[in-house]
Each structure stands twice: as structure tokens, then as C-alpha cells.
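Table S2 (text version). Query chain:
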Amino acid sequence: MQVPKEGDYVAIQSYKHDGSLHRTWRDTMVLKTSEHELIGCNDHTLVTESDGRRWVTREPAILYFHKHYWFNIIAMIREGGVSYYCNLASPYTLDAEALKYIDYDLDVKVFPDGEKRLLDVDEYESHGKKWHYSADVDRILKSNVRVLVDWINNRKGPFSQEYIDLWYQRYQELSHRR
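Corresponding C-alpha cell output:
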């Protein structure tokens, strides 16, 4: 698979632990790729759920994926400030079809005022039993929650306003070339 270049579009596919397709985002503009990460932007992107329901994202969002961390970050740029939705998920892989990862149910939502909420703990517990999440997966995910919270608390990477401003400006520059 050839690594997508700045300005290319990729689809994103999230799966569940059992291999079933969970959700697909049709077009994400690639803003940067490196050996370990991919930064992209969605803006009014078509999303298809596993049950066939479709909807369109409402606002621009900067997306952060990493090949070593077990989370990805969606920074939604809204009038009231940036809100974050962080998925606890496997590191991403990339093939000719899409950027892919396994969604492990747990999510951390960060509001513009900095409030954090851990979401979907019950879903994580029930899916863990249903799909037999291993002790290693559980340990890795819990460790990555701590890393993620540290990033949030220290405004590291996607959690800094400068990061959002830089990548959203780059998205706007690339969009206007089309």
C-alpha cells in the first residue's frame, strides 16, 4: 500500500473485536503522514453505521491516529470551542481500501471547558465478556487511558489549541486548491 500524501482522501473503517464492521467514514483528507501517525480532517463527511444508517458529520474535525497508541482522537471544531471524542482502539493499519482499527468501546469525551468523561464502560464490560477480550488487551487499554488522560491534562498534541489551529488552517489551504 502506498502511503497517502497530503491532500489525498482516505476512507476510515472501524471494526469490533469480532471482526465485524462497526462504522465507515467515506472521505477524510490526509493532512500529514509519518512513519507512526496520520493526521486528517473530516468536514461534512458521510458516515455509515453497521446497520446501514447514514449521517453526515456536522462540523470540521481534526483526526489523529497512531501506530503505537491504542487510541485515536477526533477534535471537533465548534463555535463554542473544540470538543474531543477519543476512542480507545487498536493502533491503525492502512491498506488500499481504508485506514482501519478495532474500536474497543471505551471513549473519553473532553468538553471545551476541559471537563472529561469516560464513556461506555458498560459496553466495554459486556463486549469484553461476549468477545473474550484478553487480559493483555484489557491491560493495554487501561494503560492507554492513563496516557490519553495525561495528554489531555498537559494539552499535548491534538489537545493544544495551536495544534488544532495549525492543522485546520492546513486543511483550509488544501481545500481551496481543489
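Notes on Table S2: Residues 81 and 122 are 29 Å apart (CA to CA). The two ends are 24 Å apart (CA to CA).
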